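hey so i finally got around to running the thing on that chain from the lab meeting. sorry it took forever, my laptop kept dying and i had to restart like 3 times. anyway pasting the input first so we r on the same page abt which one it is
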Amino acid sequence: MNKNKKLNAELYDKVNYLCRRYMDRVARFYLCYDFVPDISALQSAILALYAQAPVFHSIFKAHPIKPYWLVSDFTIDDVLTVQQADDLQTAAIRFLEQPVAITDPSQMKIALIHGNDKCILAFRWNHMLMDGGGFKQFTADLCAAYNCFVAGRGEEATFCNGSRSFDKVYADMPEPQKKKAKQQIAGVSVREKRTLPFTKKDGTEQTHIVFHSVPADVMQKAIAVAKQNGATVNDLMAAAYIAAVYALTGEHEKPLNLSCAVDLRRYMKNTQQIGYTNHTTFMYCSVPKRGITPLETLSAVSESNKKNKADPFLGLHGIPLLHFAYSSMIYLQADAVVKLFYNNANLALSNVGAVDQYGFTLDGHPVADALVAGGAKVKPCAAATALTCNGKLTISVCTNGNEEDVAMLRKFFAEFEHFLRSIAPN
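ok and heres what got predicted. didnt touch it at all, straight out
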């Protein structure tokens, strides 16, 4: 029995809980396969992983002095749902649009949705558990464990069970760099008043995952042109986002700040030392105005990001201040203080990167397609999340909006793809 066992609430747990004011704190992901996995092996893999990472079956207790996770007993039915459907994608989206309560005995919900010898493996989880980088490791471990169990070698399954603490970001740094990194006390939130043209709140809002895919051939050509011009894939997607904002707002001469996710695992030589957790922060890509041509917009984004990346402490500036607040005050006080200087970005982009098609193989079956979505943000926040699978880009925004907002976001994605096509040669 796990009754009364407590786990520390780590720094990023508290920061993500703070974000309940701006979003539902649920992250979402699905993987498509051209076969149906063995349900018993999948259940065994999930149970083995949960045994190594008890935070997944814990209830978050927001104690006013010192919050903590209370480990809970659970059954596989609290985690995994198996259902048959004619339209797999529609069923998966409906599953992903649901919440995850902090009082639930399982902080992750998994659905195996199958039909016609195909399936979607869908995941939604409390974002306090882990970010996209943590989930990629989680998924790789789950797939490897499934392969072990389906082959009758379940005892060989291994999982990450290291520390979830924020300070592991400093672990591999030389002492002089570590000392300086811990002195980077500065607020990093930029107030960007520009927003996408969401409607005013009217009481008809609900959670919607709006997503769009850009074909692999278009992406391949656009990426090649970007690289020829000294820009990265992340620069390209940020430029497409920025160009789409300008297209919808029409304010081409005004500066714009886009919040872009930074994975702090970049500072770690060995990510196996950490558990499933959050290690993401943000940098701001700033452009003075929309470029006359798409390549000018891309160049402005690239130059802004190059300046950011020249900072040896990119993404680390806000951590010491957060740590000071949450370690020097009781939780209720710290939460109130942090809220004062935390700005929820209206415009944001997170690129999860390429799905490891073969790293996520189940019993010899590679991933056919994938989708990622972040928390349902309160409008006018438009936090886009992107990934690439088999060369195809899929980008999404999860919003708490109405049907007019959904239609607007579809126009936004059409402009996003238009920019990429304008970069790519015919």
